[in-house]
């Protein structure tokens, strides 16, 4: 578990983190979201004792990071996957990391296997793709089998396969009971990865909630329908709903104010064939932008 209380960081006149309090629970993937410059990296650095708070406190499993005797056994963190020496192999890198932290060397092969790098473990890390570098970085975080894992923008620049792999891997870690804290400025990605969200803007807490709740509050009920009997459906939905034609001009109907399940039941009860019945999350990104608008450091127009 990670607990921040009144966490604050000033760099000269810049307030990077401003009186931030939150809890990151074990057994879940928690997304740490905010626009560029919101203070995510600064917060993560304070969790890891790499930066000293101006005020407030953050603890990992109830302890200050700097007071941990064997930190790699408590917290694993991936802040920048490219910090590996390019001429070192994955195996040599992990070997060195394990040795300098008093971790049994047999653990190196175990973590290489966990992230699927066994076959290429002897190759120079400098020749790795970004996806492979991320896997190596993750292997490093797992060396001490820590309870708490921190990842700063782990999917940045990855292809869809790499993104999917990271997403599934994080879920696996959370299922094992670990605390998984992942920062991103991509809401749509986090909506698929994280069960809980901590949203910040200009260093301040905007929301701490489950992802499902965030989406529910952020999105208007809208359902896209396509059917060969659209006119009949329009009549049946009548005053219950607000109906608009799809802006994409594909003949779909967009229904506001009635849940997809109710529309499906209504259609079934009246023998109406549906070719599409899809709840729309399109406004999620918009809602996030709205929520964090005030707190975006540099607007595009500036
Ligand atoms: N070492 C530093 N010295 C001075 N200012 C800093 C330092 N580190 C961060 N800042 C400032 O603190 C604010 C928060 O930066 P931070 O990197 O924590 O944000 P972020 O949410 O991680 O952003 P991004 O998504 O762009 O990585 C920014 O205004 C940044 O310019």
TrEMBL record:
User: Superkingdom of this entry's organism?
Assistant: Bacteria
The keyword Transferase is annotated on this UniProt entry: no
- One GO molecular function term? ATP binding
Question: What keywords are assigned to this protein?
Answer: ATP-binding, Nucleotide-binding, Transport
Q: Keyword check for Phosphoprotein, yes or no.
A: no
Which part of the chain is the ABC transporter domain? 2-227
Family annotation (Gene3D superfamilies): P-loop containing nucleotide triphosphate hydrolases
Q: Spell out the SUPFAM superfamilies in the cross-references.
A: P-loop containing nucleoside triphosphate hydrolases
- Report the InterPro entries cross-referenced here: AAA+_ATPase, ABC_transporter-like_ATP-bd, ABC_transporter-like_CS, P-loop_NTPase
Q: Which PANTHER family match?
A: ABC TRANSPORTER, ATP-BINDING PROTEIN
For this chain, the family text in UniProt reads: Belongs to the ABC transporter superfamily.
Q: Could you identify this protein by its name? A: ABC-2 type transport system ATP-binding protein
């Amino acid at each position: 578990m990670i607990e921040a209380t009144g966490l604050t960081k000033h760099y000269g006149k810049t307030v990077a983190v401003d009186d931030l309090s939150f809890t990151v629970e074990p057994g879940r993937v928690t997304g740490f979201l905010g626009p560029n410059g919101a203070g995510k990296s600064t917060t993560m650095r304070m969790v890891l004792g790499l930066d000293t708070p101006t005020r407030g406190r953050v603890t990992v499993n109830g302890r200050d990071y700097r007071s941990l005797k064997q930190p790699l056994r408590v917290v694993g963190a991936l802040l920048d996957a490219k910090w590996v020496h390019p001429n070192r192999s994955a195996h040599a890198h992990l070997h060195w990391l394990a040795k300098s932290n008093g971790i049994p060397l047999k653990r190196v092969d175990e973590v290489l296997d966990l992230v699927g790098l066994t076959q290429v473990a002897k190759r120079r890390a400098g020749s790795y793709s970004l996806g492979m570098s991320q896997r190596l970085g993750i292997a490093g975080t797992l060396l001490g089998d820590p309870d708490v894992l921190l990842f700063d923008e782990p999917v940045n620049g990855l292809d869809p396969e790499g993104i999917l792999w990271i997403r599934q891997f994080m879920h696996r870690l959370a299922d094992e009971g670990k605390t998984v804290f992942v920062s991103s400025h991509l809401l749509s990605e986090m909506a698929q990865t994280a069960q809980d969200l901590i949203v910040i803007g200009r260093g301040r807490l905007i929301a701490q909630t489950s992802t499902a709740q965030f989406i529910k509050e952020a999105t208007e009920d809208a359902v896209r329908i396509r059917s060969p009997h659209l006119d009949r459906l329009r009549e049946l939905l009548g005053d219950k709903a607000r109906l608009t034609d799809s802006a994409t001009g594909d003949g779909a109907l967009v229904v506001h104010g009635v849940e997809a399940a109710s529309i499906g039941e209504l259609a079934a009860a009246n023998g109406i064939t549906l070719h599409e019945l899809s709840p729309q999350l399109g406004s999620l990104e918009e809602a996030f932008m709205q929520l964090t608008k005030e707190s975006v450091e540099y607007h595009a127009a500036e």
